[in-house]
């Protein structure tokens, strides 16, 4: 009997979406406050976005572990074939073995083969989920051809095994070489935040105390609903998150430099994800780390009275 294991992330996303919509409608209806309703919508959008990004990132991590275990999987098949076991039985036996955190995905292939499904049907779900990875796609295609032909099994499997080993080694070398860029981008981001903080610390007192350089707030004279007025209101709101007492000039420059640091962190994270891991989802992960650490740095320094 085939074990049923629910791994459909799209279905899970839909379920969460329905739950969040119901929660929003219930709380919004009970509160009868448009402000509460709007806040619930924004909170739900953030929560669902986080869930989707986390699910995609988790899927990517699982796929990476599958690629790492493929050489062991092929080695087990080759050993079984060399001992005289038929190809399909060898694949089933190899799928039963332990492959760390991803054993269940290989075990599922064995369950389908045991249920007398054709090999192509048995690996259909596995291919659909992980087939976007070139290594997985290549391996499954080779296995399908070997099952069809039945010739040169041992030599083909050994050749595939050594090729997979080389591919994994090349990936590790590439990742090791690119990790220096990861460290460099993080260092540049925090250095940039440090420069922004120093400039903010130096400029605000100069602009606030005079000495021939006394400036008024750049927001003075603009209507609230003009573009400049809305930008200034936004900067005031940002400053209010960190400080209780501040002058208009302080609010403007604190909000300005905080947003500069925030955008630097956001785009630096996306860049490092694309360069090092060639993945937009990984870029979002690094962006979230850098953005949250930017918030933390500004928050801690404000508490300490440095900003």
Q: How is this structure best summarized?
A:
With 307 residues, this protein is mostly helical.
- Major beta sheet, specifics? none
Q: If you average the pLDDT, what whole number results?
A: 79
Q: N-to-C SSE series?
A: HHHHHHHHHHH
Amino-to-carboxy terminus distance: 65 Å
- Percent range of helical residues: over 70%
Count of helices? Answer: 11
Choose one word for the global shape: elongated
The oligomeric state of the chains shown is single chain
Strand content: under 5%
Number of domains: 2
How many beta-strand runs? Answer: 0
The radius of gyration is 28 Å
Helix-and-strand structural type = mainly alpha
What do you see in this structure?
- The structure is a single chain.
- This protein is mainly alpha-helical.
- It folds into 2 domains: 9-151, no CATH class; 172-303.
- Helix content is 80%, strand content 0%.
- The chain is elongated and about 85 Å long.
- Residues 1-11 have low confidence and may be disordered.
């Amino acid at each position: 009997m085939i074990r049923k294991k629910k791994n459909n992330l799209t279905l899970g996303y839909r379920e969460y979406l329905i739950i969040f919509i119901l929660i929003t409608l219930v709380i919004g209806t009970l509160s009868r406050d448009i402000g509460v309703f709007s806040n619930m919508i924004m909170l739900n959008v953030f929560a669902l976005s986080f869930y989707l990004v986390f699910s995609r990132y988790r899927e990517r991590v699982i796929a990476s572990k599958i690629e790492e275990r493929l050489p062991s999987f092929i080695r087990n098949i080759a050993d079984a074939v060399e001992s005289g076991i038929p190809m399909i039985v060898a694949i089933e036996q190899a799928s039963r073995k332990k492959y760390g955190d991803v054993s269940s995905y290989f075990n599922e292939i064995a369950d389908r083969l045991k249920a007398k499904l054709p090999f192509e049907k048995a690996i259909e779900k596995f291919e659909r989920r992980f087939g976007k990875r070139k290594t997985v796609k290549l391996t499954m295609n080779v296995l399908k051809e070997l099952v069809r032909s039945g010739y040169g099994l041992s030599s083909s499997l050994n050749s595939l095994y050594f090729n997979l080993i080389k591919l994994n080694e090349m990936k590790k070398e590439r990742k090791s070489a690119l990790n220096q860029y990861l460290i460099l981008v993080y260092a540049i981001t925090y250095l940039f935040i440090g420069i922004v903080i120093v400039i903010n610390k130096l400029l605000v007192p100069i602009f606030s105390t005079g000495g021939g350089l006394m400036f008024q707030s750049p927001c003075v004279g603009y209507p609230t609903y003009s573009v400049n007025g809305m930008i200034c209101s936004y900067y005031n709101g940002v400053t209010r998150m960190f400080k209780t007492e501040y002058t208009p000039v302080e609010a403007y420059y604190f909000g300005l430099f905080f947003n500069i640091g925030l955008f630097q962190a956001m785009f630096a994270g996306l860049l490092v994800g694309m360069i090092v891991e060639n993945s937009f989802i990984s870029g979002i992960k690094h962006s979230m780390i850098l953005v949250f650490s930017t918030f933390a740095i500004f928050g801690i320094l404000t508490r300490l009275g440095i900003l």
